[in-house]
């Protein structure tokens, strides 16, 4: 699986640690920045990660800002993106099982690196359940179409 990752200055250390962890696990990682810890506008990075998903170049994405919220708000404006801001394990797993989320958004100022990495593992290792949840995801997509 190919995974896109990006962050703003609120998630720089987390992003680098997560990218390293995913590479060590054998995943191909597309690092969409930032590459030095300076202040940037999180929507600019969110769009880069979304483009990787929408173009089909990457299957999943990880976005880290201070809270995870700004990144999720920006990413969810992109058609075809289902971005989930999570701060604990259960949500990181169930947003894959039930929502077929394609981007996990994390808060570098909310959770520690260790927790973030465990949540990323759950996110990339969990498959969508489909069935009744597919119907619901289809209804989310229909909102975008209308
Ligand atoms: C940047 O200071 C901060 O606002 C950003 O990282 C994020 O938390 C926004 O939602």
Per DSSP, the total helix count is 6
Q: What do the pLDDT scores average to?
A: 98
Helix content: 40-55%
For the largest beta sheet, what order do the strands appear in spatially? 2-1-3-5-4
Largest sheet properties: 5 strands, parallel
The counted number of beta strands is 5
Shape: globular
Unreliable runs, pLDDT <50, ≥5 residues?
none
Radius of gyration (Å): 14 Å
> Percent of residues in beta strands?
15-25%
Helix and strand run: EHEHEHEHEHH
Which molecules are bound besides the chains? D-ribose
In short:
The protein has helices at 12-24, 42-54, 69-75, 89-97, 113-125, 132-145; strands at 2-7, 28-31, 60-65, 83-85, 103-107. With 146 residues, the protein is an alpha/beta fold. The protein has a five-stranded parallel sheet with strand order 2-1-3-5-4, with helices on both faces.
What does this structure look like?
The chain has 146 residues and is of the alpha/beta class. The model has no long low-confidence stretch (mean pLDDT 98). It has a five-stranded parallel beta sheet, sandwiched between helices. The protein is 47% helix and 16% strand. The chain contains six helices and five strands, in the order E-H-E-H-E-H-E-H-E-H-H. The chain is globular, with a radius of gyration of 14 Å. Residues 8, 10, 42, 65-67, 69-70 line the site of D-ribose.
């Amino acid at each position: 699986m190919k995974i896109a990752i990006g962050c703003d200055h609120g998630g720089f250390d987390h992003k680098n640690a997560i990218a390293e962890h995913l590479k060590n696990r054998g995943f191909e990682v597309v690092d969409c920045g930032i590459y030095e810890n300076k202040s940037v506008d999180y929507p600019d990075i969110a769009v880069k990660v979304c483009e990787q998903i929408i173009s089909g170049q990457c299957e999943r994405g990880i976005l880290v800002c201070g809270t995870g919220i700004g990144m999720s708000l920006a990413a969810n404006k992109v058609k075809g993106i289902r971005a989930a801001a999570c701060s604990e394990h259960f949500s990181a797993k169930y947003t894959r099982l039930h929502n077929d989320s394609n981007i996990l958004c994390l808060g570098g100022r909310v959770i520690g690196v260790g927790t973030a990495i465990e949540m990323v593992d759950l996110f990339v290792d969990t498959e969508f359940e489909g069935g009744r949840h597919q119907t619901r995801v289809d209804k989310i997509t229909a909102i975008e179409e209308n």
